[in-house]
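Recap for those who missed Tuesday's class. We walked through two folding examples back to back. For each one, the amino acid string is listed first and its predicted structure tokens come directly after. Nothing is annotated here on purpose, so try labeling regions yourself before you check the end of the notes.
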Amino acid sequence: MPSSFTLELPPYRKPQIGKILVRSIFDRTLFVLGRSLAVAAPAGLIIWLFATINIGESSILSIISNFLEPFARLMGLDGYILTAFIFGMPANEIVLPIILMCYLGKNTLVDLDDTFSIGKILTQNGWTLLTAINVMIFTCLHFPCTTTLLTIKKETRSLKWTALSFALPTICRNLNLYVYNIYL
């Protein structure tokens, strides 16, 4: 007896490697690179301006970090770390160079080849094991970078899902760090 459930498959078509490569390169790679360039270049300029323009004796970057210091202390961080995560939103991989730039008081990003020097800079600026653990938790639950948020917006066509993608890890991270630091 024939089954009442029937699965109809579309006709088989031989894959066209050229179309797949072109579509993959243009639709995915160049689109993401273009978006990251549109976001990262202005962000780099803003970070550089904030690091070089002084108001009184302090740079704008230091003023922002000092303002964020009390909020950062609630999460077991310092103002420079929180500032770096905020300014690192266009590209999450620039967070550590921004932290080092702030600690060293330079207006350029720092070369990350010498890990011993990086460890020395961090410990000289008050990093402890607890600070390192808090930064790791903060990194694991960090909000998505701007390019990812733009991709979510394009694919879902919804500002609601984009905002939720940003808010959910941010809320979870802040609650987690706040509770973690209360009990330590």
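Example two. Treat it independently of the first, because the proteins are unrelated.
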Amino acid sequence: MTYANILIEHDDAIAVVILNRPKVLNALNRATMDEVVTALEALDHDDAVRCIVLTGSERAFAAGADINEFAAATPVEMLAGYRFQQWERIRQIAKPVIAAVRGFALGGGCELAMLCDMIVAGEGARFGQPEINLGLMPGAGGTQRLTRAVGKARAMEIILTGRQVTAAEAYAMGLITRVVPDEVVVETAKDIARQIAAKAPVAVRLAKDAVLAAFDTTLEVGLDYERKLFYLLFATEDRQEGVRAFLEKRPAAFRGR
């Protein structure tokens, strides 16, 4: 499939989705988000792909939503546009998605990065939710995901002041997974993706599902859910292969069954 606003690269079992609107710092308009969702869902159903990296340009992962697209919109038009259903579809992607962030990840760009399962950021990356400067607030999950990641006090400061946070600050807050030199961000994300891709695909999928469930359930319910998924993996061929490979002291050959 040909896309106008994104690029896709394949590297063995890894797929890299690249936001490609450099003239507007990868501002997220409806068309771009439609393409991102379509690509991620297609890759999620591709058995040859085991992990996905989402990235932008050197200057910006995504500098925010495309303001020109909704500058004159009414509440009814925003509601009728089903704009945020795209984000919910990304949330349903079963395979791990790693954000590789260079430059700005602001507003919708920060929310898109937080929607991924891990964030690898360059030393020069900047995160923030500056919607307050437009008389708005985050609408694609920023108030919820940022608060869960960094806590109430820090989320309040970032959202209510609109200030940008450096990669070092974001790492210290627990928002991102790793900070590396800008020039190796994508390769570092791909290296993590390769490590994940080498594991048993069904186990990876269920482990991701269990971690995400921790945000939506009580500890008791979460533990019960984890235990059931753990038992379910005993029905897979990969579990048998993993145990045999361990006992035979050889690398496991996982097949996703």
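Answers for example two:
Strands lie at 6-11, 14-19, 51-55, 60-62, 97-101, 104-106, 118-122, 126-128, 165-166, 178-180.
Residues 109 and 167 are 14 Å apart (CA to CA).
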